[in-house]
Amino acid sequence: MTGSIVDKDIQKNRLLWRCRRGTRELELLLYRYIDEHYDSLSQEEIQLFKEFVEQDHNDLNSWLLNQELPRDNNRFNSIIKAMLHIN
Fold first, then answer.
1. Is the predicted pLDDT of residue 31 greater than 60, yes or no?
2. What's the pTM?
3. How many CA within 13 A on the CB side of residue 66?
4. DSSP code, position 65
5. How far lies 74's CA from each of 20, 69, 81, 85, in Å?
6. 8 Å CB contact between 26 and 65
7. How many CB atoms are closer than 10 A to CB 36?
8. Which of 2-11, 13-22, 31-40, 46-55 is predicted least confidently?
9. What pLDDT was estimated at residue 46?
10. Complete domains list, the chain, with CATH
């Protein structure tokens, strides 16, 4: 494996670790997003997802499990829509 492939795999594994949030439902949504989208994400989009995962647990639950888009932090809307398969 080349260095960039190894680096990308390490980065992906670290991101998967960050997705451990304590509720199985939330974790499944986060893991599925990475499985479906990680390879096509730019570095900026990966950074945005890192910031998204670090949001308050209650906010993530509201956005993903209750399917409410954030009112004051709409920079995450594209991630939420992709996770929930909303157009």
1. yes
2. 0.83
3. 10
4. I
5. 23, 7, 11, 17
6. yes
7. 12
8. 2-11
9. 93
10. 3-84 (1.10.150.250)
